[in-house]
User: What shape does this take?
Amino acid sequence: RDAQESRGLGDVYKRQKLIRMPIEKRWVVKPQGNPEAVAAMAAALGIAPVLANLLVQRGIDTVEKARKFFNPHLSDLHDPFLMKDMDRAVERVERAVRDHEKIMVYGDYDVDGTTAVALVYKFLRHIGHKNLMFYIPDRYTEGYGISIKGIDHAVRKGATLIIALDCGIKAMEKVVYAKNRGVDFIICDHHLPAGEIPAAVAVLDAKRADCSYPFDELSGCGVGFKLVQAYAQKNRIPFSEIEPLLDLLVVSIASDIVPLTGENRILAHYGLSRLNNNPSKGLLSIIKICGLDKHSITIDDIVFKIGPRINAAGRMRMDENDENAAPSGGHAAVNLLIEGDELQAEEFGSVIDAFNQDRKCIDRSVTQEAHDFIERNPEMKRLKSTVIYNPRWMKGIVGIVASRLIETYYRPTVVLTMSNGFVTGSARSVPGFDLYQAVESCADLLENFGGHMYAAGMTMRPENVEEFTRRFNAYVERNIDPEMLLPQVEIDSDLLFSEITPQFRRDLNRFQPFGPGNAAPVFVTYGASCHGEAKLVGMDCEHLRMDLMQRQKPNTTIQTIAFQQPTHYEWVRSGRPVDVCYQIVENHYRGTVTTQLRIKDIKPVLK
Assistant: This one.
């Protein structure tokens, strides 16, 4: 390991083709809070001015708001019956329970969908409803959303009510088809509706134009939880009986990247507490596999470790002809999440982890192929967007590959492959550029599409790929601001290393959970230099680890890690000064917890 860590950059780049020279980032310091308001907040709350400034920057400009922010309460959750159609949804579920109807709980194959299915299924099972089943559509044979195959399966099994979660808001024809076959629908979705609302018994979606619910940023699982909350509230079931479901909900909130504000902040706060102190058996098995059982789990741990494992099940295509195969696809994820036996949950967890290992190998290989193709085609490198197509790539990982390509080329990206005779793909965007509008501008070439500003999916006929590529690239060329093609680091404020005291860290932790709408703050420190040894670490020497010192009284040294930033190794090792922007994190190693700076970017000081 010592020999590996001491290699120069030449060896690093020879060994690992995926490590490339990083794009230079722009540093943008956010506007600072009003000095008088910041000082008053700091004095009233007994916190450092830097932290009071963070509050004011986030619109938390009164002591009352700050105390509410620091102390989320479940009592501040909104009445679920404020959501349009909630009364109708609860009444229909009550009738199904009372009459022992068979209920199918139906959901998307990603983390949000599978956690939502598990949450509603577990609740119905908890209240004693046994005539119950769940269904997750196959990504490859059915695609996203409500499928005819799923409805037909419900009919064959005798289900008369389908509760659809994280999907269904555009399933007008499918809902009619189900109704004609004697199956009612309750739709719980959080995506933008089209002009028409499906003719279901109830459509729960806070984004409906005619819905006045106070918070419209719930995840799909969050909408399912509001249905559960409403049923419990009407039937006088104590909230304490549904609180254990919050571990599933926080996994959904984190993985679906919904804003961590309003109700989501409250639900995530209590969900993290449940996840850390008393998780369900299925999630516990994943926690152990990830090695997270020895320290406090954060939103980042869910995003980067727990969520991808659950997601992987729905991404992988299994052998449909193998009758002895372990549970596959999204079904395997739900089986894990609803399992109450610890030993069985560990078996399911191992299956899920194996899916994730396979997924990582495949997406790494496909990402390398995509990189190589772009590098061999200089005309593609000159464009302001990327559209790349290979019919051999696995449908389940093209979204991941699109995100990987943005890390290198930093521009709106579409990755396409072939599935069931159609070309299908995923798109990802850069901050500020509305990807959905770009895809929508090509709607006449598409069989279907959906998504939002930063992520979208689409399906088209093979003969339309060339024209789609031309028109998508032309739309981006006309509409993107050149500054959007330069990655930027948003900095909250400057900070001295000496200010990072134990009390400062404790107060900073009260800002958690971090996520969209409440991002982990980024600080900048100027004129630091390496004190001791700088090392390149990781399997491919792709990360830079160093102890940095700031020579201001008192001199303070702190441990740092710069992921995927090996290029400044020689400069730092020489002791020359650097400016760094970073997040403050806790590093857990062999039972010891230390403060660490997670470096976002490094700029050598040239003068």
Observations:
- The longest strand covers residues 592-604.
